[in-house]
């Protein structure tokens, strides 16, 4: 039987096709079966979980019954009361904001006054068109003296700054009073017609340099910090459960042995405590040279008062002033049984 070339080629094509199908079909079938099995398995598992979730019991949560507030008053009166309450709160908030603004304004006003006093005590004294009269001199002196006596109207027994420290209070730079007084004695003896601070800084006495108090190293460097109303808050101390506590941040007052800690009680009976720094921060700092009801030194540990002294070179407190401070502590339930008192 003869076979043509065409038949052979067709036969070979058929055989090759058959060979490819035979090779691929089983693999294809196996893959298809495996895939469908996995899908069936996942579907069965999903349906099982779904059935479990459907039949799972969800615990019941009992919510509290809503409270119903009732009032015998009509709704119109209740609305009016709510409006009044809102107005009162807003007015309180406004007053609080205004009070804060007042403190800031007072702080700026203090600085403006000091700047004006500085100009008046320096070159501008001779820049004015009209010469100073006796009346204007007394007015200027009265203004400066009022600064030293600030607070006396609230406590007649309060102590003013010692006379030798008045110069410190009225000096716009607040140079240490003890140092200023050395130069003041020379000015007084010179019979100069120039105001003291003008004489000292730019006038006839500007070249005078005392050996006991050199200008560059002592006089100009030792300037006392005078606190304004806002700065003063950092040093205010209150008494809580018999302990001394800083009002601003709640820290307990604790002094250290290496430093001297000082206090003043203002004429409004506010207590201030801080660390003394000679020629920088002293008793006169707290009230900016104003009068005090009491002043001295103290020792405290974690708010517990351990010792007090009625000593202040700026105020020279009396025994009566010290008793007033003891009374203040007693009124605030400070235990004085173990407090060391040095008079």
From TrEMBL:
Presence of the UniProt keyword Lipid metabolism in the record: no
Cellular component, GO annotation: cytoplasm; nucleus
Q: Where is this region: Disordered?
A: 1-25
Q: Where is the composition biased (Polar residues)?
A: 1-21
Does the keyword Chaperone feature in the UniProt annotation?
no
**Keywords tagged on the record:** Cytoplasm, Nucleus
Tell me the InterPro entries matching this sequence.
IQM
Identification of the protein by name = Calmodulin-binding family protein
Can you name the source organism?
Medicago truncatula
* Subcellular location as annotated: Cytoplasm; Nucleus
